[in-house]
Design a protein that fits this description.
The protein is α/β, with parallel strands linked by helices. The chain is built from four helices and five strands. The model has no long low-confidence stretch (mean pLDDT about 95).
């Protein structure tokens, strides 16, 4: 499967979140063999969980299955550039690679506002690939917020 294929799975999780009234962000975690080991969408509102971001939820699911909070050699696909909290969680989980769709000019922490994960300032780093299906990922967010206005 390609980066775009995995991002389409993440987009499905984002759309599921939107249907629940959540901000439509989806995440998929893939192991070194290309097997999807976890996927999730945002659930901050429904779960009353301030850290219920798609990335955190996917990392939690995978860590629970693995019996280990470290998830080396994995790639996380997410429809929106992660925030500071999610980027820090990815560092702690020791993911190898992040692939995201749309940038987040207001709170993006891996290329837009900060370069967490690739700046060499912390004890771990991960590679970053942005812009995968960016228009589709951004469109899901734009549509969601237009309907709420």
């Amino acid at each position: 499967m390609t980066d775009s294929d995995y991002m389409r799975i993440a987009l499905t999780r984002a759309e599921e979140s939107a249907a629940k009234g959540e901000v439509p962000v989806g995440a998929v975690l893939v192991d070194s063999e290309g097997v999807v080991i976890a996927s999730a969408g945002n659930e901050t509102v429904c779960a009353h969980d301030p850290v219920g971001h798609a990335e955190i939820r996917a990392l939690r699911i995978a860590a629970g299955e693995a019996g280990n909070y470290r998830l080396p050699h994995t790639t996380l696909y997410v429809t929106l550039e992660p925030c500071v909290m999610c980027a820090a969680a990815m560092l702690h989980a020791r993911i190898a690679r992040l692939v995201f769709g749309a940038t987040d000019p207001k709170t993006g922490a891996v290329v837009s506002k900060y370069t967490i994960g690739s700046d060499g300032l912390l004890n771990h780093s991960f590679s970053v690939t942005g812009g995968v299906l960016a228009e589709e990922c951004g469109g899901v967010l734009r549509d969601f917020f237009q309907k709420r206005r």
